[in-house]
Amino acid sequence: MLLDRLGWGLIFGLAGGLIIGLAAGLESGSMASGMAPNQGIMRSARHALLIGMGAGLITGGTVGVGAVVINGLFIGLLDALFYSLAAWLVVGLAFGGYACLSHLALRLVLWRRDALPLNLVAFLDACVGRVLLRRVGSGYIFVHRLLLEYFAALPDEADAPELGPSAG
Hints:
The chain is mostly helical. It has helices at about 1-25, 40-70, 75-110, 120-130, 145-155, and strands at about 135, 140. About 15% of the residues are buried.
């Protein structure tokens, strides 16, 4: 019983150490200033998929070998599949997947509320073409200070008074 627990602990410890070591080794330094819009979120998605897939393969392989030896082929393969998918999900979310899902959810909510267009980059590039904004790295800034102050001074829609039939 103790030897069985020690074996599983050794398997999970080796798999976890290998996953964290590979993920830390693949992590690069700072982002370049000449990036295109959405390049950072695409990089996060790529990291989430690659590191999550590596974690899933390593975890599934190590758990699979141990489970096949202990429980037989069918149960071992089921355990390997389950732990592989779980590791892929958890590690993928930790290394960029959560940022991608949050970004996507925010963009969809803002689009559904008609606050921003779905193709935001094309809209912002059109504003650059009309000299309302200027691209700085992967972001945008207002060209004219008065335009920035005008938009900042606009009241929120939630603060605006109701103009219905009884308001006249």
